[in-house]
Design a protein that fits this description.
elongated, mainly alpha
């Protein structure tokens, strides 16, 4: 395959664009994917039409473990499509630029992905659609070269749909549509071609969906979308827009011979602008993916570095930030020095926050039973993934079930490039005593058994955490960090005050962090209970720095008549934006789904 200079430039652009701007997306897709060379895993792809595309896509997705390598493989597949288009449609000279237009729209299919990725059921989503278009164009090229001029060329369509639908799904019907348009253009076999397309295009998917025992894994309600990502984008038309644009470009290219010489450049430029304009540029989504990757690597400094950059974070970002602070021993000390808020998830799909981050949040806050349950539920509801197998491995280790941990670890090892991760956790299975000195497990063990009985009553992730940590009896410093942080986040004043005094009575010498001191100064000082105020003053005697700052804050609040004016918010943020006091009065509506 010989690339033109235009294709080479497009390949370089695609690699850099995906690697530098969407590298964390590629890594996420690899973690949320799975591939195993086992016969049982491979066989299930042939129990549904179009399974070959998903199988090849799942295999290629493994390369995205290294985003630059994944970007190169994606670029190669897009360039292969452009090469096939150029050959199939006879695009030479200036018109060869048009061969890149469908590839641009398929690049858009990847770059506009949003939080819908967290409920993906389609394997190999990064590659399957490009592979489907490659197969469609290759088959259309076969028709043009071998069947289009013959008297019985229309027989190509029945053969195509009957043999092609099981392998490439509805992309076989896409080829049939291209053949119909081509027959209309050359005025040969149009009526029989159209008739066979309509009849078999309707009949074959219907038969495949309804004949008993034929396709056990096929969803008969979406028989005419087999091979397309209908699970991810059902109810969300925008997810299909790039694919529709790519298909429309192919139809238009059938008439490329009649295009004027000036057409290719403006069409290509317009397509490139559409791709850039419709790409998902949501900074919070990019931050969530970056933080998720850093959490997986236990790179807490990177998590906090990302957290500090976004003034209006989602609750996902806030929860990841808290995980990082806890693992650095700075949760209640620094949590209110970071931007806080509850920006909505920008997506057209119904994706709850718990679906995005519940597994790592539950794990790192010691809620390992909830983490195990969430991992199993997501694995059964969606596609299996390396991501969930990893957390199931770690939960099994925490519970001391090393046989189960080995089972999950072996599942992780069937995918490529997981060697370093496997070696780390295999060492704990081989030598369980080594877990005692490992920072990851040392931070979790003091809190993993801490649980309140009403956890199951929660309707949201943070409410679940609140119920989990609402036991008002002081247990240990690790549990206190999560208890206090959760209650302060949800502004549970009375619960926090009781917990604070219980801890102070049992351990009066324990250091009081900045966030806890600020909260107690505020909640104790405004409680209206003189006993609480006196006890708070005594307990905070070691934090005179906080008490001295609280006095001017309280005076400023007393002199303020309207808290919701922009200039008032800005004034307090400039002076007290890194305190619990600003969070308490000015950060509202944080309840999450």
């Amino acid at each position: 395959m010989k690339f033109s200079r235009q294709t080479a430039i497009f390949a370089l652009f695609s690699i850099l664009f995906l690697w530098l701007l969407k590298g964390d997306l590629l890594y996420h897709m690899e973690q949320y994917s799975y591939f195993s060379p086992s016969g049982d895993f491979l066989a299930k792809f042939f129990e549904q039409p179009g399974g070959l595309l998903a199988l090849l896509g799942a295999f290629l997705t493994q390369f995205c473990h290294f985003p630059v390598l994944g970007a190169a493989v994606i670029a190669l597949s897009l360039c292969l499509l452009a090469y096939l288009i150029r050959k199939a449609f006879g695009l030479e000279g200036n018109k060869a630029l048009l061969a890149l237009v469908p590839s641009l729209f398929l690049l858009l299919f990847i770059t506009r992905m949003d939080y819908t990725l967290y409920h993906q059921k389609t394997y190999g989503l990064l590659f399957s659609q490009t592979l489907g278009f490659c197969a469609a164009v290759a088959l259309f090229m076969l028709y043009r070269r071998c069947f289009s001029s013959g008297k019985y060329g229309w027989l190509f369509v029945p053969l195509l749909i009957i043999a092609g639908y099981p392998l490439i799904g509805s992309y076989a019907i896409v080829v049939a549509v291209l053949v119909v348009v081509e027959a209309l253009r050359v005025k040969v076999n149009f009526i029989p071609t159209l008739a066979s397309t309509l009849v078999l295009g309707a009949a074959i998917p219907f038969l495949c969906a309804n004949l008993p025992g034929l396709y056990g894994r096929m969803n008969r309600h979406f028989a005419y979308f087999a091979g397309f990502p209908y699970f991810e984008f059902v109810g969300s038309f925008w997810g299909f827009v790039p694919l529709i644009l790519a298909f429309a470009a192919l139809v238009a290219l059938i008439y490329a011979e009649s295009f004027k010489r000036k057409v290719p450049v403006p069409v290509f430029v317009a397509s490139a602008l559409i791709m850039l304009g419709l790409t998902n540029w949501d900074p919070n989504f990019a931050a969530v993916l970056k933080m998720e990757r850093a959490v997986s690597d236990r790179d807490w400094d990177k998590v906090l570095k990302v957290a500090a950059k976004h003034e209006e974070p989602t609750r996902v970002q806030v929860l990841y930030r808290n995980i990082a602070l806890y693992n650095k021993g700075q949760l209640t000390e620094r949590m209110f020095t970071f931007p806080d808020g509850a920006a909505p998830l920008k997506t057209t799909a119904d994706v709850p926050i718990s679906m995005v981050c519940s597994v790592p949040v539950e794990y790192y806050s010691g809620m390992i039973n909830s983490c195990e349950r969430s991992s199993m539920e997501f694995s059964s509801a969606f596609s299996k993934s390396v991501y969930f197998f990893k957390y199931q491995t770690k939960v099994a280790l925490m519970k001391g079930d090393f046989e189960l941990a080995q089972k999950y670890l072996d599942a992780v090892g069937r995918s490529w490039f997981q060697g370093p991760w496997m070696r780390r956790y295999q060492a704990f299975i081989d030598n369980p005593a080594s877990m005692d000195s490992d920072p990851e497990f040392a931070a979790l063990r003091p809190i993993m058994e801490f649980s309140s009985p009403d956890t199951e009553l929660a309707s949201s992730l943070e409410m679940c955490m609140l119920h989990h940590f609402e036991n008002l009896e002081y247990v240990n410093e690790n549990a206190f960090e999560w208890q206090a942080a959760t209650m302060l986040s949800w502004k549970e004043e009375s619960f926090f005050i009781q917990l604070f005094f219980d801890r102070f009575q049992k351990h009066p010498e324990a250091p009081i962090s900045k966030g806890v001191a600020e909260a107690m100064a505020l909640l104790g000082g405004t409680s209206g209970d003189y006993d609480i105020m006196a006890q708070a003053a005594q307990a905070l005697s070691s934090r005179q720095d906080v008490l001295k700052q609280f006095t001017p804050f309280a005076n400023s609040m007393n002199m303020t008549t309207s808290y919701d004016r922009p200039d008032t918010i800005k004034r307090f943020k400039d002076r007290y934006g890194d305190t619990y006091w600003f969070y308490y009065y000015f950060i509202n509506d944080i309840r999450t789904n």
